[in-house]
Amino acid sequence: MLMPVSFIDSITAIDSAQWNAVTGIDYPFTRYEFLHALEVSKATDRETGWQPQHALVYDGEQLIAVMPMYLKYHSYGEYVFDWSWADAYQRHNLAYYPKMLSAIPFTPATGPRLCIKPGHDAEAIHLALADALLAHAYRVDASSIHILFPATEAKERFKQSGFKPRRGSQYHWLNQNFASFDDFLNSFSSRKRKNVKKERRRIEQQNLQLDVIEGADISPEIWQRFYYFYQLTYAKRSGHGGYLNQAFFELIAATMAEHIVLVLAYDHNKGGEAIAGALNFKDSTTLYGRYWGCMVEYDYLHFEACYYQGIEYCIANNLQRFDPGAQGEHKIQRGFTPIETWSNHWIANPDFAAAINQFIDQDNQSMKEYIAQASAMLPFKKTAQ
Predict the structure, then answer these.
(1) How high is the pLDDT of residue 327?
(2) Residue 173: HSE in the Cβ half-sphere, 13 Å Cα cutoff
(3) Could you tell me the domains of the chain?
(4) 59 and 120 in contact (C-beta within 8 Å)?
(5) What is the DSSP string of 329-353?
(6) SS3 215
């Protein structure tokens, strides 16, 4: 069966209902509204180095699959690092950019990348799309194709099409049918449990209060306040105001409120002033910790707002997993389990492909060993692991 594949340079070239009929509306990051907000707010365009190049697969005139795709002109905002590959190209007077990238911008969350409408042949669509990606890469003179944080089944299908899988790791909280946060803590060894309790008590001692506000109840004033925190924190950490602007947050507030969970912290020593916030997204199974910002540093406030409040929310709402974002070994001691993440890579230049694939093989083994070692650091009682 012929499955035409086309590439569009803006999600606005397609109707939102058509797109969401393929992706569904549970997983927030492939929803039309999320990707549209990124484009309309100009977080993803040619000027920022994220030129949309979304792939569409048709059966006749019916849209049956989509894949968020970008032409990238740098490697920022990806969380799967290939800077050394780009540097090697430069040292050999070759261009690594543009490259083709299937990812959710600034969002290292595993999930669907090639989204397929229910009832259609997934294997045939993967094969058609893989062939189309290679042809398009040659057409736009891209050095490579990268698929970041795909679900396991997609990772395996792209591997079969010649896209080398690369193992990574993150730290996720897994709900073992806990009845409460104390029930969760009871799975810890005594010393580790005391450490968490001490951190949480310190929040009270500093006269801080944390509230969880769901999307529809977040006022425009609170959104403005959160964006101020976000900018401040990015400026301290990276010297710029962040990848996202206020327009992006206003757009998702208007179109995706049902996915948004905001943890807001108040300082009663300052008259109850809001001083920090952690913004999360959710779907039917998972809470995704995404953006954090604060005015000043408080002892353990980051852990409380970004981790412990999220765990409590998951328990109260019967969510199975809490994905708090990339990196951070400090999460292990707080009950976040090291897990595998994946990416797939195809390199056009055969000499570089051989060298990079060899590196990936070695890196995959090292990462496998790291995950095993990190798992041994979990705080749980031996009978609970």
Answers:
(1) 84
(2) 32
(3) 5-169+339-375 (3.40.630.30), 176-319 (3.40.630.30)
(4) yes
(5) GGGGGGTPEEEEEEEEEEESSHHHH
(6) helix
Residue type (1 letter), 221: E
> In this predicted structure, what is the pLDDT of residue 241?
80
Three-class SS state of 356: helix
To 10 degrees, what angle do helices 32-40 and 16-23 make?
130
pLDDT digit string, tens, across residues 151-207: 999 999 999 999 999 999 999 999 999 999 999 999 999 999 999 999 999 999 999
Q: Name the nearest CA neighbour of 111 among 159, 76, 149, 165.
A: 149
Residue 196: both structure tokens together: 């968490």
Q: Are 263 and 277 in contact (CB under 8 A)?
A: yes
Instruction: State how far the Cα of 97 lies from the Cα of 294, in Å rounded to an integer.
Output: 35
Q: At which residue do the structure tokens 């019916």 appear? A: 62
Which residue type occupies 223?
Answer: W
Rounded to whole angstroms, the Cα distance separating 272 from 268 reads 4
Dihedral (Cα; 6, 27, 81, 170), 10-degree rounding: -160
